[in-house]
Each structure stands twice: as structure tokens, then as C-alpha cells.
Design brief:
5-stranded antiparallel beta sheet, alpha+beta, disordered N terminus, 226 residues
């Protein structure tokens, strides 16, 4: 009869050596190195196992499946990162084509230039009454405009630069408020500010625009290109 026993001390020493080597290596996050270490460990286990009490095949299969899963996740992360970089480049090209164009973005300011001011609003549902109130920098009411009934979505408006008495107002910056209602019930409305895109910046957070006097406007915040 052949007598074979597993040398536990020897196996423990080999495990310790492998772990020490893996700790000193700086490529622990590398999928290839992870596979190499796993295979070395598996071979060491098989070489030092008791032939009369061999390793369970199901355990070996489970360990290999776990390694394959981790490797697959690493590859998936790399693929997603490459896709993200590609999308960021496409966003930059798309945003660059907007330079010089007017856009509507969330905001409550309106610039009066050459006797005209532009603005907008985004309604969550249709409204039978939409009013715009324009204020000067001191907070005094300058003009009320009734836009009447408007459908759900974007609403654009034009201010002729006159106050409620018909007097021409000085060029400059003003603010506005939009109030909307349907059958007497308030309808949520997001105020939209008009501005011209002057530059595009690509940072860690994605593509950002400079719109008029506003910096750091995300591309996703653009509601309309005029």
C-alpha cells in the first residue's frame, strides 16, 4: 500500500510565500496577474493534497468560476471606460458646434439689448393662463405680460423693452418670474434664460458651456437651441 500524507506545514509555508509575493507586487488589480496567482495557488494545493482525500471538484470549479467573474468585470469596466471617453469626445464636438448660437437654459435673468429681451419657461402640463413678470435690479416690477393658454413643454416669449406705461427701459440685466395655472390650480413652471454660447470646456464632470454671463452650464441643461 502506498502511504501518502499531506504536509500541512509545507503547504502553509507555500501559501504564505505566495501571499507575500502578491503583497509585494503592485499589480494586484491586474487581471492577468490575478489569474497567474490563482493558478499557482491551485497547482500548489493539488501538489500537496492527500491522494486519499483529494480536493473536491465542485470547489475547484466554483473558484475558477469566481475568478472568471472577476476577470469579466474588470474587462467590462475597461470597456465602459473606453465607451465613456468616446462619448465625452462626441459631446465636446457637439457642444463646440453650439458656439455662437443662442440657447435656453434654466435661469431667471433676461438681458435687454437693442430694445428686446428673450426668455422662456418649461411647463409640466398645459395651462390656460401663463403670466410673465419682469423686474429691474432693485426688485421693482417693470412689466407684466400675459401669454394666454400654452401647451405642455417649452414656451418662448419676447419682451419689447417697455414698461407697463409704455416707456422704453434702459438696456441692462433684469429678472423675471413665470406663473402658470390650469382651471385656477397652479402649474409648475421652470424659468428659462436666454444666452449665447461663447465657449466650451471639457472637465472631469463632463462638458460645460459658458452661456452669456453664466459659466459651468452642463450640456444636459440646454433646453432649446435657437
Amino acid at each position: 500500500m502506498i502511504s501518502a500524507t499531506q504536509d500541512n506545514n509545507s503547504a502553509a509555508a507555500l501559501f504564505a510565500t505566495l501571499n507575500a509575493n502578491s503583497g509585494s507586487a503592485k499589480a494586484a488589480s491586474n487581471a492577468v496577474d490575478t489569474q497567474d496567482r490563482f493558478l499557482k495557488l491551485l497547482v500548489t494545493q493539488m501538489q500537496n493534497q492527500d491522494p486519499l482525500n483529494p480536493m473536491d471538484n465542485a470547489q475547484v470549479t466554483s473558484q475558477m468560476a469566481q475568478l472568471s467573474t472577476v476577470t469579466g468585470i474588470d474587462k467590462l469596466n475597461a470597456t465602459l471606460q473606453a465607451l465613456s471617453d468616446s462619448m465625452l469626445g462626441n459631446q465636446s464636438l457637439q457642444a463646440a458646434s453650439m458656439i455662437g448660437h443662442g440657447v435656453l437654459v434654466p435661469g431667471s435673468g433676461v438681458d435687454l439689448v437693442n430694445g428686446q429681451g428673450y426668455g422662456g419657461a418649461e411647463l409640466v402640463q398645459s395651462a390656460d393662463k401663463v403670466d410673465v413678470a419682469i423686474y429691474d435690479q432693485s426688485g421693482a416690477l417693470v412689466r407684466n405680460m400675459q401669454l394666454g393658454a400654452q401647451p405642455e413643454g417649452l414656451v418662448n416669449w419676447l419682451w419689447d423693452g417697455r414698461d407697463n406705461s409704455g416707456n422704453s427701459m434702459a438696456a441692462g440685466s433684469y429678472s423675471f418670474v413665470v406663473e402658470a395655472s390650469q382651471s385656477g390650480n397652479a402649474v409648475a413652471a421652470t424659468t428659462l434664460q436666454f444666452g449665447v454660447v461663447s465657449s466650451v470646456t471639457q472637465g472631469k464632470g463632463g462638458v460645460a458651456l459658458t452661456v452669456g454671463q453664466m459659466d459651468g452650464i452642463a450640456l444636459s441643461q440646454v433646453r432649446q437651441i435657437l
